[in-house]
Structure prediction request, 258 residues.
Amino acid sequence: MLTAALSIGYLCRMKSVRLRRESFSLRGELIAKFFPLGLCSLLSQISLVFAMAAINNMTREYGALDEIFSQPQYAQIPMAVVGIVMKFFQIVISIAIGLAAGCIPIVGYNVGAKRWDRARKLLWRRLAVEAAVGIVATLIAELLPRPLIVLFGAANESVYYTDFAIRAFRIYLCTAALACMNKGAFIFLQSLGKAFSSTMLSMVREIVFGVGFALLLPRFFGLDGVLYSMPASDVLAFVLSAFVVFGVDRALRENRAA
Prediction:
């Protein structure tokens, strides 16, 4: 309620835009412009839910087949650990999304002003920052997994819990830099108005690779295959994103819309 009140107060105090009754009427030409961009974010979030559901289901299924975690006293460990790892990963991705989303109006302004050089510089600078965020997260996960486990309240758990949690953090987040760069690329395409490309890349990452590898890899690697599904998806998604990003860079370098 407080956030809504602050938003209304801000809208009513804008100097460059004056709200009138007709401002709230629906206009087809405007809806046609912003609906695809909003749909992009909607489908991206929905596809992420499918990927997370696949990972949780495979964790439960193959955890029950594991020699240790099939025992009743340890049966909840895989789901608990994967939940913690995914929560930490969501924190990292939220930072990447915040950085990328904050650049959307700047990219839109410069593209509208036909300052392709600024938009191009922003693309690479933002990807560099996204990579830095991912690298820091990877270093934390690889070098300090035990403090992370304690941070989430698992200081007195069994040795099986600790060993699996360390392995999960190190495997699941080993490609966090690529994941952050992928998310930055998706949102940059969205800021250019290329909703279709952004949506397709995001859905391929989450549905085709995310769900596909979560279902496939455990058949060969057991419970660890669930963990490997994350880096495998990010590597392939990064390859696809690289082709698209370099195409966008070439178009911006030639002073035209991508």
Notes: Residues 145 and 167 are 9 Å apart (CA to CA).
